[in-house]
Amino acid sequence: MSAPNGKSVVVSGVGSYTPPRVLTNDDLSKMVETSDEWIRTRTGIRERRIAAPDETTSDMAAKAAAEALADSGLKAADIDLLIVGTVTPDMPFPNTACFVQQKLGMGKVPAFDVEAACSGFIYTMEIARSLMLTNGYRHALVIGAEKLSSITNWQDRTTCVLFGDGAGATVLSLVDEPGVGILQSLMGADGTETGILCVPGGGSASPSTVETIERSMHTIHMQGNQVFKIAVRVMCQSAVEILGKAGYKAEDVSIVIPHQANNRIIEALAQRLGIGMDRFKINLDRYGNTSAASIPIALDEAHRNGRIHPGDLVLLVAFGGGLTWAASLVKWQ
Ligand code: UT7
What we know:
It contains eleven helices and 13 strands.
């Protein structure tokens, strides 16, 4: 994917925020019929973070964004474009990005949300990159933020053990240098699988009523087994395809930042790619699945812990409700 005018879009800052409240597997075993052992062996998750009742998705997004701005050395006023990936907006509208813009005291720049579930961050990053290359925006704030606890059915053991809250952010910058930063991205979706992972109520199909609430239709519904199988397939296909398109081999990848849904999905990906688990960033044990926030939170941790160096090839790969999938290959600056 050659960029016009010899320009590239690089990651110039990374940040994240996770709420302080920790919900452990043992805590959950007091709420539903489950156990630490079941959750750990089936998913790898030990604990997750839960936002305060009055803490919104945009509150978390703004905190992660402030960190990313500090990391980049830029100010909110330098940002020309703001996009938030989320399935848990503060409100159906206005979009969450507008709340973030207000909280950061930013200029009146374009601000909108992207809804691609757990693939949301990579979708958001690719939309920002394309707009920067075509419209000349110099710096974009790209955020993945979720308050999944607000759409979790805390009586459903098949889903409530999986999810957590948090936000991750990156600053993207346009540079006059070809072949650096985001080298290649891909996005895909299979709309024939909308029913296996969704929040069926509260939208135009079933507006909220007493009955939809009583039936918990405003919470996450998932056929875990089905999602698992497709996840392994599309994650592997996406990783292989993006490496092939960019002319790299799996062994060239310095670190993989996969969507943090389930250790077993990540292990299957590692095996198919022939990349050791030591080259995968995993933090789902501490945060669970935070949907669109999962990749940028993991990216921020890897960056801050010194696991990513200039010149490294970083592979981001995700799948999520839709079903959607996406991957991005980044040459770190
Ligand atoms: O970002 C995308 C979001 N979604 C995902 O990533 C989900 C992908 N899927 C998964 O990660 C896995 O399918 C799960 C972790 C959700 C479930 O693991 P599984 O190995 O596919 O288990 P299962 O659904 O086949 O259930 C096995 C058993 C069932 O009991 P029976 O029918 O065998 O008696 C479940 O009722 O485990 C039972 N079960 C539980 N037991 C204790 C389901 N949830 C729990 C639980 N604690 N929390």
